[in-house]
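Subject: Sanity check before I submit

Could someone independently write out the structure tokens for this chain? I want to compare against mine line by line before I put it in a report. The sequence has 364 residues.
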Amino acid sequence: METRAKERSVANHIAYWIVGVIAVLAVVVAIIGFNYVNSSMQPYDSSSKSDVVVNIPVGSSSKEIAKKLEQDKVIKSASVFNFYIKAQNYTDFQAGYYTFKQSWSLSQVVKQLQKGGSSEPKGTASNTVLVREGVTIDQIGDQIQKSTSFKKKDFLKLMKDESYLKSLQKKYPQLLDSTMAKNNVRYHLEGYLFPATYGVYSGLTLKELVNQMVQKEDEEMQSYYATIKEKGLTVQEVLTLSSLVEREGVTNKDRKKIAGVFFNRIDINMPIQSDISVMYALNTHKTKLYNKDLAVKSPYNLYKHAGYGPGPFNQPSLQSIEAVLNPSERDQDYLYFVADLKTGKVYYSHTLAEHEAKTASLGQ
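---
Independent answer below. Compare away.
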């Protein structure tokens, strides 16, 4: 009996000890949990004054929004944010671009989400990327690397990302169907990154930066789609000729006449023979081209190949697009043109003999 009493006493002591340890652990966990939740409720960085732009995709769940906010360093904890919005019964946040500050509390973040997002980023940009008329994707890559923390190699890799390109095509079929249907294209988005200045905000990804450029192109092209279809052209054909006109002509008058020359050549299956196409094929810029350059093997070489080729050679301006859609003096049947490199004046000819004579008289 005495042995059993001792065993019960030992067992009770062990049980008390285990309960005590569990109780202490529970208190410790509760304190840690309270501190974690309390810390997560605080601003990510109360001293920060910079803007953070976050893009909430269409169809995002509350959990996905919370995860995105945590990734972009707007909030400290996605799980605490989810608990907070459920406890407060906040729902139905809209898609779009939102501008937050890291110094905001959770309630301020929620209030911003409740206002609804915008179609374009807003706020104070940390940097900007300028896409000029007539620049190539390769040159845009240089500008992006110079102006942002993004790398040119990553930008060019994105330009070759089939999955990404198809997602854009799905979103902008009118704009991108014709380029995605073409073969031997160096970059399917060449000609489709609208010339403008784009803000780069904290939290903005490289894809989101490019998305802005494509979205802007689609917005600007909306008023032209019907005309393009009526003329029996594709967006790819229009932007291809526009990219040549962009570099060949300076004034709107000459751009329209040059567009007319290109269409006259296409109508008789005569190669366009633009130096711009050869330099793109060579992937370099030259002040003078030689016979070996004109013979370069590339689908982009429009000295060797008739028609439009694979696609655009740069990002054309709206003025060049309008020139292609409204070519002038086609009834004059011009097939050649040459610009005086000193004055910029453009001379038009009907025959090769006339063209060569004019070029010789200019000493070019």
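---
OP: Matches mine. For the report I'm noting this point. The chain has 16 helices and six strands.
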